[in-house]
Amino acid sequence: MDNPLENDEKDKRHFPRVDADCPVQYLLETSIHWKAGTLINLSATGLLMFTEEPLSENTTLFVSLKPERDRAVPALTGEARVLRCTTSEQGRYEVACKFLHIDIPGAS
Q1: At CA 88, angle to CA 85 and CA 92, rounded to 5?
Q2: What tens digit of pLDDT does each residue of 28-86 get?
Q3: Under 8 Å CB-to-CB from 8, ≥6 apart: which residues?
């Protein structure tokens, strides 16, 4: 029988995720038009967002977060790589991305 405490230890991440619901703008390397998504959660190393279109694994994209009401999420821009893309129950796509580089306005 598995020890539940051991399973909890395996599930711990190096950086906690912050659940959020705010707009995300993203731009594919191969595109000239920004597209809209919705942030699901954010960590120091990446983000999870809903999109209306599937994004291929290993695609590089530029992201911009400008949270309106959610103070737990910083405004930032950066470059990210798609790790996975799955279909959600709502018919949208859940896209997990790893940050390659981020810029936080006002950070020194």
Answers
A1: 80
A2: 988 999 999 999 999 989 999 999 999 999 999 999 998 777 677 888 999 999 999 99
A3: none
Q: Is residue 8 a part of any domain in this protein?
A: no
Q: Tell me the one-letter amino acid at 18.
A: V
DSSP run (H or E) holding 5: helix 4-11
Angle at 67 between CA 62 and CA 71, to 5 degrees: 130
DSSP 35-91: EEEEEEEE-SSEEEEEESS---TT-EEEEEE--SS-TTS--EEEEEEEEEEEE-TTS
12 class by beta-carbon count within 10 Å (0-12 exposed, 13-18 middle, 19+ buried): exposed
**Which CATH number goes with the domain that contains 99?**
2.40.10.220
